[in-house]
Amino acid sequence: MLCLESFMKSLPGKGVDSxxxxxxxERSAYDRLMRxxxxxxxxxxxxxxxxxxRGRNKKFDGxxxxxxxxxxxxxxxxxVYSFGIANEWSFDESIHEMFGCRVFSFDPSMGIGxxxxxxxxxxxxxxxxxxxxxxxxSGETWNMRTFDSILRQLGHWNRTIDVLKLDIEGxxxxxxxxxxxxxxxxxxxxxxxxxxxxxxxxxxxxxxxxRRIEEEAGLRHFSTRNNTQMPPMRVPGFYSRYEQHFFEMAxxxx
Length: 254
What we know:
Elements: H1 4-10, H2 16-38, E1 46-50, E2 53-54, E3 60-61, E4 64-69, E5 79-83, H3 90-99, E6 102-106, E7 115-118, E8 121-124, E9 127-128, E10 133-137, E11 140-145, H4 147-153, E12 161-166, H5 172-181, E13 188-196, H6 203-215, E14 219-226, E15 233-234, E16 242-243, E17 246-253
Parallel strand pairs: 5-6, 5-12, 6-8, 9-11, 12-13
Antiparallel strand pairs: 1-4, 2-3, 7-8, 10-11, 13-17, 14-17, 15-16
Helix pairs in contact: 2-6, 5-6
């Protein structure tokens, strides 16, 4: 059996020094990413927690937060886009009941068609993606639409979206890149997003993408909370480092 040193020397153009340097860069990039995630810089004097229910470990899950002050708040004609329901309606119902917002809910995985959930919530059997088309997941066909095509379909192209919620189980990076690339996050006042750190050490790419939310769209990171339903996981690229990898993050426009 080759030892690590022999194995690395056997790789073209790669030696022990370059391998160790790569590992050190990975660790440094991971630490920078975690500092950004865990230390929001924007203040929030009035934070509103919306929705949520107790999960299997008796801790809350599904709740999202918005900042009313100094954030933009929610007006009388507020519009909410909620992607990722999984039959858990508490956020959608709560923000409609408390603020009177019109809520547009989307999820292709629930096996139900388009319908009005209640007087203020319209459900669409559609998922958000970086393309328009269909995909097959576990033998089921899902209809996927881009954010801009959904805005046009619903007649909201020239409207501000007061709250955009993304809880789409790992697809958030591709979707966020598509939304940012088209400049559409500039018309969103609150972004509430569950992030899942990737299985591969692409820490620099993730950090750059999250920073673009502030640098390009002008939103401010004000909240990060652990997803308490998931246990700590091994950090890819590290031998024995276990940390939380699922987070609820939130930004507001100021």
